[in-house]
UniProtKB/TrEMBL annotation:
Gene3D superfamilies: 1.20.5.170, Calcium-transporting ATPase, cytoplasmic domain N, Calcium-transporting ATPase, cytoplasmic transduction domain A, Calcium-transporting ATPase, transmembrane domain, HAD superfamily/HAD-like. This is Calcium-transporting ATPase. GO terms for biological process: regulation of cytosolic calcium ion concentration. PANTHER family: CALCIUM-TRANSPORTING ATPASE 10, PLASMA MEMBRANE-TYPE (PTHR24093:SF530), CATION TRANSPORTING ATPASE (PTHR24093). It is a multi-pass membrane protein. It comes from Eutrema salsugineum. Belongs to the cation transport ATPase (P-type) (TC 3.A.3) family. Type IIB subfamily. Catalyzes the hydrolysis of ATP coupled with the transport of calcium.
């Protein structure tokens, strides 16, 4: 095994801080889930049942609500069945009417701004009533009623939009209001320990007033109640802020931008701004943004599974099946639709209005932290139980004394009310120890840092769709990146051109081309495109479409193309959109004289392979000789070697009478692709992004291998890879480093697994090749991130550990299957996501180190003091304040540290590596032991060491100093936790305003508690000497941390020793 995977992450050595990766599968632990992406429901339910939870509503707020998910699926099935039943009933009624010779007439059009009313148009769309549509005059008649020009769209001015929204509604649907702040207060108060403390506070208040009178008896009860209330309010405020961040992110995810035709030109608008009457172009991978009817289309196939629940592709045409449902996806072909229904007037809108979006989806780190919290919680409960038992026994045996030295309990003499009051205080201390011991906020710290990171990542052009992806990106060992637009600028220009008979220099010198040749070439370019050319209001020519389409259209314009006149002079009979599997697209065009030309455009060597002729300068067809073919192939290779994308354009004539006339047969007709005549081969320049080489180098230094997977020519891929630094030199440009997709897919699974580790560049790859590569790399133990933009990339994006869809060029299908959307399509943004992913993990580790130090110190101090003296130096109110510092405020301070360059100096974090590394154990042990030692010395010898005998109430002064020093130790240690493995703990501290703010707030509140809230917090005012002593005790933690960081730690994680011992015991038992 080790030999087979010698180059995989399973065999790599990790740095000391990260620990070493483990190849053990811990089937026995419900918290061992390395990936929650597509995890079985039973697996998710199992860890929830195993977790020790004090406040389930808060702990599981941002995990997948399994019950709600089941209810959601059930509701979707009901609504789909309801919609289909209505449609079936209408079809049955229509069929019966035809049999009986009854014809239905459309209801009278509504008077007003439009010739048709909302109810009528919604009814036609919902029932998919072709008969009613034909009675209105078909799509053309409907567009006239809606005052829409099918070519130019609506006017689109503010008045027109307002009238349409008023008449037919807007493309929005009612959404559930976010939880109010008071809902978060209520949920925060559901914590079991806090409820017990409130009950204890009420009992203490009642008993205190009864035994000591109203003037003094209310102190203890009200103090605990106030402290609990403070914890609840601060916790609720933090949770509420997180909720608002998630709401904003959800809004961003839903706000899809699409192209519509308005005023004769294509404009980019939000999906929420679509109105009835809009004309919208549809291409492969698009989401149908509203209900509508098909105006024109070629081979348009729609995936209606989101609405019907059946994964069946439905062919659409303008006569028999023209209706399009909102929320469905374009699986193939292209078309143009007229919007007939928006918002809640569509089935999708009704569906979205009734099904609330769930923020849920736990992350692997969240699950693991629940395991850590459960373990610590069990220890804390045990300790609290021991403390409770010891204090009760000591109380009833007369070993606890009052302030004057008399026993608190004397059998037969102490009043029942006093006994009850004392027992309530003992129980309060024990319960408060549970509050401190059970780190309820530990798993929620993941949500906090993820919410913070996701908001910041938006500024870095990355929109996180799945919470777990953010942290998983920190473990990524390889990134399979597209070339075009990700590694390159996506600013394409035709810089070189070979016509069939000559090399054009410059490429747009139309004077060298014969008229008939130019006419055929430009007709092919005008029709065989998904782009468009239009004039702006200022008269400037503008081009839309993909970067490749725009480059070719701009080149054709320079050759003299009049886009609109060519498109109107002849009509497209059949259209085959560019396909990433076939690497080409085609169109059949019929002229007024019934001449039919079939045009193909695509990857140069593939289109050239189908060519048997070329047109010479005399406009004659010449056989493609072997020499000519070799000459053109050499030209393609030469352009590709200079990192140019090579596209060929070819055509052939076809007999008009052989074209099917029936719509159904026409939709199945395959365009002829043999005996083609080469028209042109163009070389398109797409420069590398300026900073991409540094980004690739940064990834390599961070232990993340960047692989280019592109559909481009292998030579183009090689040239770009050398320019980007993915290939170091020409010497690396050989198999298997550089490989073609067809070669890779021809290997067996074992062979693919063997060579996948070495692949750096894959050229002429299909989406399925990308999927095979991802699967091979995952079998090798890699954590794989994949970029994709096309519909066919969806399987690879889904299969990868992290799917990264492109925000600009990506289709809606690709985005829906992705985990993160890269908004600017830039590889540098992908690298920033890696930094943020590592930052999430590092921040959680910082928080764990800080919180466990407080846990250990507080528990040990109170347990030792309770067992030895029967009293605890830290009271319930003080422990609640400490809990607030380490839980909510500590998480806010440490879980929101911005990423640093140091994070990219490490290798990726293994998915099974211990959360608490040896370095963390070392730091934690040193700080906790220091705090415990010093504070216990103060507890037992503090009065004499601090010379407090002469002071008034020395015991209370001593306990106040212990409490004050303990809190100040945590403030100093918070700085240590920022940099667990670095000497300079202050680097970048002023850049984190939240950290500085929380430290200042903590200091101010501590001063207030000690100096002004003595009655509530059981403290007494300290003089400046005691303050200096407290600060001095806390400040020693800084030099102590520096000394500690000089102590080397073993590479094998501490947890590994326990695992080995357990394995040995199990083995010996067998």
């Amino acid at each position: 095994m080790s030999g087979q995977f010698s180059n995989s992450p399973l065999g790599e050595d990790k740095d000391v801080e990260a620990g070493t990766s483990s190849f053990t599968v811990y089937e026995d632990s419900p918290f061992d889930i390395t990936s929650t992406k597509n995890a079985p429901v039973e697996r998710l339910r199992r860890w929830r049942q195993a977790a020790l939870v004090l406040n389930a509503s808060r702990r599981f707020r941002y995990t997948l609500d399994l019950k709600r998910e089941e209810d959601k699926k059930r509701m979707l099935r009901k609504m789909r069945a309801h919609a289909q039943a209505i449609r079936a009933a209408h079809l049955f009624k229509a069929a019966a009417s035809r049999v009986n010779g009854i014809t239905s007439s459309p209801s009278a059009p509504r008077s007003g701004d439009f010739g048709i009313g909302q109810e009528q148009i919604v009814s036609i769309s919902r029932d998919q009533n072709v008969g009613s549509l034909q009675e209105l005059g078909g799509v053309k008649g409907l567009s006239d009623l809606l005052k829409t020009n099918l070519e130019k769209g609506i006017h689109g001015d503010a008045d027109d939009i307002s009238k349409r929204k008023s008449a037919f509604g807007s493309n929005t649907y009612p959404q559930k209001k976010g939880r109010s702040f008071w809902r978060f207060v209520w949920e925060a108060s559901q914590d079991l320990t806090l409820i017990i403390l409130i009950v204890a506070a009420a009992a203490s208040l009642a008993l205190g007033i009864k035994t000591e009178g109203i003037k003094k008896g209310w102190y203890d009860g009200i103090s605990i109640a106030f402290a609990v209330l403070l914890v609840i309010v601060v916790t609720a405020t933090s949770d509420y802020r997180q909720s608002l961040q998630f709401q904003n992110l959800n809004e961003e995810k839903r706000n899809i931008h699409i192209e519509v035709t308005r005023g004769g030109r294509r404009v980019d608008i939000s999906i929420y701004d679509i109105v009835v009457g809009d004309v919208i172009p549809l291409n492969i991978g698009d989401q149908v943004p509203a209900d509508g009817v098909l105006v024109a289309g070629h081979s348009l196939a729609i995936d209606e599974s989101s609405m019907t629940g059946e994964s069946k592709i439905v062919q659409k045409n303008t006569t028999k099946n023209p209706f399009l449902m909102s929320g469905c996806k374009v699986a193939d072909g292209q078309g143009t639709m007229l919007v007939t229904g928006v918002g809640v007037n569509t089935e999708w809108g009704l569906l979205m209005a009734s099904v609330s979006e769930d923020n849920g989806g736990e992350t692997p780190l969240q699950v693991r932290l629940n395991g850590v919290a459960t373990f610590i919680g069990i220890v804390g409960l045990t300790v609290a139980g021991v403390v409770l038992f010891v204090l009760v026994v000591r109380y009833f045996t007369g070993h606890t004394t009052n302030a004057d030295g008399t026993p608190q309990f004397v059998g037969g003499k102490t009043k029942f009310d006093h006994v009850l009051d004392d027992l309530v205080k003992i129980i309060t201390v024990a319960v408060t120890i549970v509050v401190v011991a059970v780190p309820e906020g530990l798993p929620l710290a993941v949500t906090l840092t993820l919410a913070y990171s996701m908001r910041k990542m938006m500024a870095d052009k990355a929109l996180v769709r799945r919470l777990s992806a953010c942290e998983t990106m920190g473990s990524a060992t390889t990134i399979c990146s597209d070339k075009t637009g990700t590694l390159t600028l996506n600013e394409m220009t035709v810089v070189e051109c070979y016509a069939g008979f000559l090399k054009m220099d410059p490429p747009d010198s139309s004077s060298k081309l014969p008229p008939a040749f130019t006419s055929i070439l430009l007709e092919g370019i005008a029709h065989n495109t998904t782009g468009s050319v239009f004039r702006s209001e200022s008269g400037e020519i503008q081009v839309s479409g993909s970067p490749t389409e725009r480059a070719i259209l701009n080149w054709a314009i320079k050759l003299g193309m009049n886009f609109d006149s060519l498109r109107s002079a002849s009509s497209a009979v059949q259209f085959v959109p560019f396909n990433s599997e076939q690497k080409r697209g085609g169109v059949a065009v019929k002229s007024p004289d019934s001449t039919v030309h079939v045009y193909w455009k695509g990857a140069a060597e593939i289109v050239l392979g189908s060519c048997t002729h070329y047109m010479d300068e005399n406009e004659s067809l010449v056989d493609m000789s072997g020499d000519k073919m070799a000459e053109l192939k050499n030209a393609i290779n030469d352009m590709a070697a200079r990192s140019l994308r090579c596209v060929a354009i070819a055509f052939r004539s076809f007999e008009a009478e052989k074209i099917p006339t029936d719509d159904e047969q026409l939709s199945r007709w395959a365009l002829p692709d043999d005996d083609l005549v080469l028209l042109a081969i163009v070389g398109i320049k797409d420069p590398c992004r300026p900073g991409v080489k540094n980004s690739v180098l940064l990834c390599q230094q961070a232990g993340v291998k960047v692989r280019m997977v592109t559909g481009d020519n292998i030579q183009t891929a090689k040239a770009i890879a050398l320019e980007c630094g993915i290939l170091a030199s020409d010497a690396d440009a050989s198999e298997p480093n550089l490989i073609e997709g067809k070669v890779f897919r021809s290997y067996s699974e074992e062979e693919r697994d063997r060579i996948s580790e070495d692949i750096s560049v894959m050229g002429r790859s299909s989406p399925n090749d990308k999927l095979l590569l991802v699967q091979s790399l995952k079998r090798r133990g890699h954590v794989v991130a994949v970029t994709g933009d096309g519909t066919n990339d969806a399987p690879a994006l889904h299969e990868a550990d992290i799917g990264l869809a492109m925000g600009i060029q990506g289709t809606e299908v690709a985005k829906e299957k992705s985990d993160i959307i890269i908004l600017d399509d830039n590889f540098e943004s992908v690298v920033k996501v890696v930094r943020w992913g590592r930052s999430v993990y590092a921040n959680i580790q910082k928080f764990i180190q800080f919180q466990l130090t407080v846990n250990v110190a507080a528990l040990v101090i109170n347990v030792v003091a309770a067992i030895s003296s029967g009293d605890v130096p830290l009271t319930a109110v003080q422990l609640l304040w400490v809990n607030l510092i380490m839980d909510t405020l500590g998480a806010l301070a440490l879980a929101t540290e911005p990423p640093t360059d140091h994070l990219m100096d490490r290798t990726p974090v293994g998915r099974r590596e211990p959360l608490i590394t040896n370095i963390m154990w070392r730091n934690l042990f040193i700080q906790a032991m220091y705090q415990v030692t010093v504070l216990l010395i103060l507890n037992f010898r503090g009065i004499s060491i601090l010379h407090l005998k002469e002071k008034q109430d020395p015991e209370r002064v001593k306990n106040t100093v212990i409490f004050n020093a303990f809190v100040i130790c945590q403030i100093f240690n918070e700085f240590n936790a920022r940099k667990p493995d670095e000497i300079n703990i202050f680097q970048g501290v002023l850049g984190n305003h939240l950290f500085v703010g929380i430290i200042c707030i903590t200091i101010v509140l501590q001063v207030v508690i000690v100096e002004f809230l003595g009655t509530f917090a059981s403290t007494i005012k300290l003089d400046w000497e005691m303050w200096l002593i407290s600060i001095g005790i806390g400040s020693i933690s800084w030099p102590l941390a520096v000394i500690g960081k000089c102590i080397p730690v073993p590479e094998t994680p501490v947890s590994q020793y326990f695992r080995i011992n357990r394995w040995r015991r199990n083995s010996s038992g067998n």
